[in-house]
Write a structure and sequence with these properties.
Layout: H1 6-17, H2 22-31, H3 43-55, E1 59-65, E2 73-78, H4 80-95, H5 103-109, H6 116-146, H7 155-180, H8 187-196, H9 204-212
Antiparallel strand pairs: 1-2
Helix pairs in contact: 1-4, 6-7
Domain Transcription regulator PadR N-terminal: 11-85
Organism: Paraburkholderia hiiakae
Protein name: Transcription regulator PadR N-terminal domain-containing protein
């Protein structure tokens, strides 16, 4: 079975509504605000995804059209297998938490590479960026509410805002501990920890023993 992705699922979802060409798919995703959760900025990624779905028989070419001076456009439609697969992928993504590897937790795991003051400055920059993004999302949500958009179509935004707010609150608390000196480190302390928690075969005594043998 084809490996799913948010973009592949979005393409299948668009084609369940009606046959359409890639540019129309991209514009609909953007117009509905789904580009907040589905990356359609790179047109090439969209075409690559469509090609994968086509090879997997989840979509098919319906026709090719030419509109005046515009280049020739290929219209795609979803197949029965595509409809079944879209529902299967959606069920899986709703029900099963995916083990993902986002960049921020990975960076936090390597925080001691920076001196405490440097780490503090970077997190201050992040808090400012998170605050701006939260304000942007609040403005988008207020606009959608003013237009009386049903909540069904705002759920992903609610989750993104809740996640963003949690990250902002947590990062702010870590920043507070860095500023207060409650969270700190130094090179001697890190070396001491590295020796203390080194695997038994990697301790100085073990290395000396290995040389003697």
């Amino acid at each position: 079975m084809l490996r799913h992705s948010p973009l592949a699922l979005a393409v299948l979802a668009m084609l369940t509504e009606a046959p359409m060409h890639p540019y129309r798919m991209q514009q609909l995703i953007k117009a509905r605000g789904k580009d907040e959760v589905v990356n359609v900025r790179q047109r090439n990624s969209l075409y690559q995804t469509i090609d994968r779905l086509l090879r997997g028989d989840l979509i098919a070419v319906r026709e090719t059209e030419r509109d005046g001076a515009f280049p020739e456009r290929t219209i795609y439609e979803i197949t029965d297998a595509g409809r079944d697969t879209a529902r299967l992928w959606l069920r899986e993504q709703l029900a099963q938490p995916a083990r993902e590897f986002p960049a921020f937790p990975a960076a936090l795991s390597l925080l001691p590479l920076l001196p405490p003051d440097d780490a503090r400055r970077q997190l201050e920059t992040r808090v400012a960026a998170l605050t701006r993004e939260l304000a942007r999302m609040d403005a988008l949500y207020a606009g959608a509410e003013a237009m009386q958009v049903p909540r069904l179509f705002l759920l992903e935004g609610e989750l993104m805002r809740a996640t963003l707010k949690t990250e902002l609150d947590w990062t702010t608390s870590v920043l507070g501990d860095l500023k207060a000196g409650n969270l700190t480190w130094s090179e001697p302390w890190l070396r001491e920890l590295a020796e203390r928690f080194a695997p038994p075969s990697d301790t100085p005594a073990a290395r000396e023993s290995s040389k003697e043998s």
